[in-house]
Request: fold
Amino acid sequence: MKQLNKKWLLSASLALLAGMASAQSVDLSKSQLGFTFSQEAVPVEGSFKKFAATVSFDPAKPAAGNADIAIDLLSVYGGSPDATTELAKPVWFDSAKSPKARFVASGFNAIAGGKFQAPGKLTLKGKTLPVVVTFTAKPAGKALLLDGTAVVNRLQFLVGDGVWKDTDTVADAVNVKFHLLVNP
Amino acid sequence: MQLEKYPLLSQLLHWLVAGLMLAAFGLGITMTDLPMSPQKFSWYAYHKWIGITVLALVLFRLLNRLFKGAPASPTHMKTWEKGVAHLTHWALYGLMFGVPLVGWLSTSALGFPVVYLKLWKLPDLVGKDEMLGQNLQDLHGALAWTMLVLIGLHILAAFKHHFIDRDEVLGRMLPWSVKRS
Reply:
């Protein structure tokens, strides 16, 4: 009972903290997180069906922007049923052992062409490494549509280990793309 | 009686396509059973590149056949024999064209565009639809096996002409001359 209370208290205070940081809510039903990888030079589209995102962003004040995205690796779709099964294996995501990936970024900056950059850190398969996200922001009513991409070099995270290290078959660079609807 | 030979270009295309189809068939029946591996991906890629090559060559062969025709059948052949031979030849043309085309359709539907020789991305013939892709892949396999049976009959018929009828039907598809007594 005591244990349960503690847990409740913890989550309540976390929720409170999140509210205090004025994080905006991301409408996940209208948001997508996908990726394109290159297999024998063939572009293959995959996606993550489940992820949680907290984004705080005002295009007028990019430096104050921050994002925290938790990705459920078990919800991956690898472009085909075979690839989806394959990606859960230890040589790829090892999602039984590390079921989540997390991207945390803050201090965004405006770059040329009306775009923004979010320098962040991606934690994947036990490794935390810098990843830079480039995105555009468009108003959609009172909400904000963020569309962006990031290049993740899979081998840095040992995603596709062993025989899959051969980049002739599956290229190192994976293009991650997202479409987030951020409510005010 | 001396039978007119196929032109050298027709012979070259015949044997080239035969070799490529055999290679694609060998890859095709092996690669599907391979476990997920870089080798499997490579073999699929080679299989598709060979298939696209066959498709292009067969298009050329079809035009060649339609405009240039083929040497006449030997006079000793009965009408029904000629009929069966023509039917088999046109069925083979249809399958040489249809098998790679259905393969291309299936890979499009499965969401894997063909990037020929890793250089040129070919257009997708249909949008992504895994169910349709699976059905097309099954059809691709069934048509390939049908073609294999027809190729078997085609070879047997050529041997029958050569060893039983002792005519020049096989010889006219060979660049070197075969003396018949």
User: Anything to note?
Assistant: Chain A touches chain B through 19 residues (CB under 8 Å). Chain A has a mean pLDDT of 89. The longest strand of chain A covers residues 127-140. Chain A has one domain: 23-182.
